Each structure stands twice: as structure tokens, then as C-alpha cells.
Amino acid sequence: xxxxxxxxxxxxxxxxxxxxxxxxxxxxxxxxxxxxxxxxxxxxxxxxxxxxxxxxxxxxxxxxxxxxxxxxxxxxxxxxxxxxxxxxxxxxxxxxxxxxxxxxxxxxxxxxxxxxxxxxxxxxxxxxxxxxxxxxxxxxxxxxxxxxxxxxxxxxxxxxxxxxxxxxxxxxxxxxxxxxxxxxxxxxxxxxxxxxxxxxxxxxxxxxxxxxxxxxxxxxxxxxxxxxxxxxxxxxxxxxxxxxxxxxxxxxxxxxxxxxxxx
Length: 263
Known about the structure:
52% helix, alpha+beta, globular, Arc Repressor Mutant, subunit A, 2 domains, four-stranded antiparallel β-sheet, Beta-Lactamase
């Protein structure tokens, strides 16, 4: 089921580390099927004896908010993250069309550190992270439409669904006027930009609800909704059910525990 899992396990055996992945754009999911074990998306699950003992909100602040902010500001190839417990991880972001889509964490190590081994992983991990994104694309069963303009529109939405974007932003990306952009979106995609954007946000919300233990309010924020109320209304309108009921009906894994949300 998890096609890329053997590759991750082989990397772990060779390097002696454990991998955790943050997949903000769900590029490691194909046709609603995760290519890696969803438990890898949570530090609290990959390291229950260390991260699992940390206060949940503190864990999210350090491994989610602060890491994403550092990547956005510096766009590093990789860097080391040291938590207050003295545990070291190597972090490597992967990009698609210049947008950060996956973050791979390798660790964890306690002092004293084997510096030559860590430097080797710092060379390998960025290449491995980029390769995961390429490998995931090879698993995709939905071919491009052949309509170059439609593909550019869908790609823009896929990479920006979690941001407060508008038709004006798409127009700038396409180098077209706002009026012309509205016309070509309808002509080439058969719907308005707002409709396509909402479809993408609900799609990702469903994946988060099914494969993560983020709280529903956090999922709303991750998917670009301005508030929990807006998310709840939109989700009900698109799926005829509430986010909480959808999660309850699709949660068949006995290993899930709600209080151990990502990261």
C-alpha cells in the first residue's frame, strides 16, 4: 500500500536514523492513497519516548511553525535542529516549482555527536528529499490534460491552495489581465477560480482528516480557511457532512490517537 515505504526504510538502515516527513501539499499521496506510512508525519509517533512526552503545543511550535518560518526566510538546502532536550535532527526541505512541498527530518541523535556521520547525512538528505518528490510524481495515475494553460492553472492552485490567493494572483502568474484570466479559467477548466480553489482545499482537508491527527481547527488553518466556521460551512456544503463526522466515519485505524497530533 505504501509504495515508497521500502525506500525510506532502506535509507534508515544505511544511515542509522529515523525519518519523519511533513507533506504540506500531499505530494506523497496518489488517488487518496498514501505512498508512505502516515505515522511518519508525526514526531510524536516516530519518537514516542522523546517527542511523545513533550507538551503538544510546544512540539508543534518547534517542529512546525519555527521550522517552516526558517525555511521560508532562508530557503536552506538543509540545516540542523536542536531541541531543548539536546536532541539533534537534520532537516531538508524539498521544492516543486520553487514552492516548499515536503520537509524531511532525519534523527534523532544525542550528544556526543558523530560529526562525520552527520555531515554525510547532510549531503545525502537533500538529494533524497528531492528524489521522493520526483518518485511520487511517477506514481500518479492522472495524466496531464494536454491543455498547457489548464495545467498551469491547476498547478498554480495545487501549490497555493493553503495561501490567501485570488484570481488576481493567478492573473499575475499567467501574465494576463484579470478579465482575461477569468475568461480563460472558465474556458479551459470549466469552472471559476474560486470553485477550483475550494475543491483543492476540501481535497486536502479530507486527506488531513483521514491521515493525520491534527485538530479540526488546525486543519482549517493548514488548508487556507480564514476560520473554523468558514471551513465547517464549506466542508458541509461540498461533502454533505461535517469534518468531525467525516473523520469518525473514515477512521478505521486502531493505532490512531487523537492527542498526539502532528508534528
